[in-house]
Amino acid sequence: MNPALAADQLKYGYDRSAPIVNGFNLTVATGEWLGIVGPNGSGKSTVLRMLARLAAPHSGKIEMEGLDMADLDNKTIARTMTMLTQTQEGALDISVRDLVRRGRNPHLKWYEECRGKHEDVVDWALSVTSMAGLQHRSLVELSGGERQRAWLSMCMAQTPRILLLDEPTTYLDIAHQLELMELIRGLNRNQGITVVMVLHDLNQAARFCDRIVAMMNGAIVRQGTPGDVFKVDFFREVFGIEAKVYDDDGVPVYLPNGIVSKQPHEASA
Ligand SMILES: Nc1ncnc2c1ncn2[C@@H]1O[C@H](COP(=O)(O)OP(=O)(O)OP(=O)(O)O)[C@@H](O)[C@H]1O
């Protein structure tokens, strides 16, 4: 089976003379939940944006389910993959259901309206994200957590096989963070959706992700299961902190203890 995503030798820079990401390779297996972690500015969002084709690599290639993304049109990509960001822009004075209907756009012909079987998919998307009860409410009337779930519901209406998320829990309180992560776990385990998520909360990454990729200065510096990656020397070398790492039933849990005197980005100075 082709991997969900395969990135080969990606290069990208906002200023072309100084690449932010260089020689980046990544394979995401179908059905896995991959977490991308790393310090601020290490290039995580840039990589995710390239995977979602929101940014075009200056060189290198990305394949989605074995097909070169450069050869695919936006609609084809949107039928397979969708991205949820930490905050969403756009009009808020529409109902949840109308927002979720927008997720059907990649599946509709230009003259077609969201009806019949498409409305069935909207019902399904509302139901798997527990938004059916709020579908007639306007987005402005929702809490931050409910609103984030409404956007996820729209993503689900696209019936994607691959879901990319960029720090989707940033503005949520801990209960809503866990609720969203549990919801995504259900989509991953029950619907078989491949998940690639950038996240800062390393304890949540350890608890939910199958595999971790850690980035520094635009490159992958560690990868493996959470237990393989989240060790004392990882926190020292990648984040510049001293941490204690405990085992909670096979899941690593870290507790920060202090800052390492010389930060990783100063190591060569
Ligand atoms: N639009 C932009 N123009 C110029 N430089 C940018 C732009 N967006 C990001 N950068 C720079 O690219 C580098 C990587 O940024 P990116 O957002 O990918 O990092 P990140 O790991 O996602 O960071 P964070 O954890 O802070 O969200 C940073 O040095 C950042 O300053």
TrEMBL record:
GO molecular function: ATP binding; ATP hydrolysis activity
Region forming the signal peptide: none
Record keyword Ribonucleoprotein present: no
GO CC aspect terms: plasma membrane
GO biological process, one term: iron ion transport
Domain of life: Bacteria
SUPFAM superfamilies, per database record: P-loop containing nucleoside triphosphate hydrolases (SSF52540)
Record keyword Hydrolase present: no
Recorded topology in the membrane: Peripheral membrane protein
Keyword terms, alphabetized: ATP-binding, Cell membrane, Ion transport, Iron, Iron transport, Membrane, Nucleotide-binding, Transport
Domain ABC transporter: from-to ranges: 5-242
Cellular location(s): Cell membrane
Transmembrane residue ranges: none
Protein name: ABC transporter ATP-binding protein
Species of origin: Paenibacillus montanisoli
